[in-house]
Amino acid sequence: MPKPVEEPFDQFQQYYRTPSNRTTTENFQLFLWNPEEGAIFGRSPSSW
């Protein structure tokens, strides 16, 4: 759970911070299909 922050945008960045070793395109491709978790569009098969 992120720490409480004063600005809502700071809290948004805590949740959606991208790792520095991936590009935006790589992050988007992982969102579409994540083979490590078997997730499609960020959802696992059990959550569908």
Describe the structure.
The protein is mainly α. It has a domain at 23-47. 38% of the residues lie in helices and 8% in strands. It has helices at 8-16, 24-32; strands spanning 33-34, 39-40. A two-stranded antiparallel ribbon has the order 1-2. A hairpin with a 4-residue loop joins strand 1 (33-34) and strand 2 (39-40). The radius of gyration is 13 Å and the shape is flat.
Features:
single chain; 48 residues; mainly alpha; 2 helices; flat
Strand content: 5-15%
Query: How many DSSP H or I helices?
Result: 2
| Oligomeric form | single chain
Radius of gyration: 13 Å
Order of strands in the sheet with most strands: 1-2
- Uncertain segments: none
Based on Cα principal axes, name the global outline.
flat
* Averaged pLDDT: 75
Which secondary structure elements does this structure contain, and how are they paired or packed?
Blueprint: H1 8-16, H2 24-32, E1 33-34, E2 39-40
Antiparallel strand pairs: 1-2
